[in-house]
Amino acid sequence: MKTSIYATLAAVAFALPAMAQDMGDAANGEKEFRKCKACHMIQSPDGTDVVKGGKVGPNLYGIVGRKAGSQEGFKYSDALVKLGEAGEVWTTEDLAGYITDPNKYVEEKVGDPSLKTKMTFKMAKNQADVVAFLAQHSPDAGAASAGDAAEKPATN
Ligand code: HEC
């Protein structure tokens, strides 16, 4: 009996870091967010700055689980408005795809190549990390990604 318990524990010990890696490293994502903050802040509804940033792009607080193009007071491009109308509610996976190439992402989802987003930035690597960081500051992350995100937002 003992050996099987140890075998299980060993398997879990190996599996956990691998899973964490797949889902992104939020601590590294916080550093990577430096690339975003020229244009984006993360500010909670009570006015607390998680990350002070620019206003070129919308506030990214709560972005996981939020409808695309729906931050009140921000003037989005038609591309982001159409994306929201097409039913996009940001999941961690979708966000990673979007920040890799915003225009291509919208074109694939909405099916209109003439739509151009106002985001002129593409992220070539560590997308999952930055998304894991965003998920940490998204109270609705659990609803968007199946699983126990509400309990452990950092890993989603
Ligand atoms: C040069 C400025 C700039 C940078 C850098 C930038 N963004 Fe953006 N971002 C924008 C703008 C502008 C929009 C609004 C797009 C539109 O309306 O077409 C946007 C939109 C978004 C959206 C959609 C928000 C919503 O409410 O639907 C997400 C998510 C996003 N950006 C994430 C990021 C992340 C993560 C990074 C860093 C990896 C980043 N952006 C870097 C300017 C930027």
TrEMBL record:
Taxonomic source organism: Paracoccus aurantius
Domain Cytochrome c: 24-138
Domain of life: Bacteria
Keywords: Electron transport, Heme, Iron, Metal-binding, Signal, Transport
Protein name: Cytochrome C
Secretion signal, residue range per the UniProt entry: 1-20
PROSITE patterns given in the database record: CYTC (PS51007)
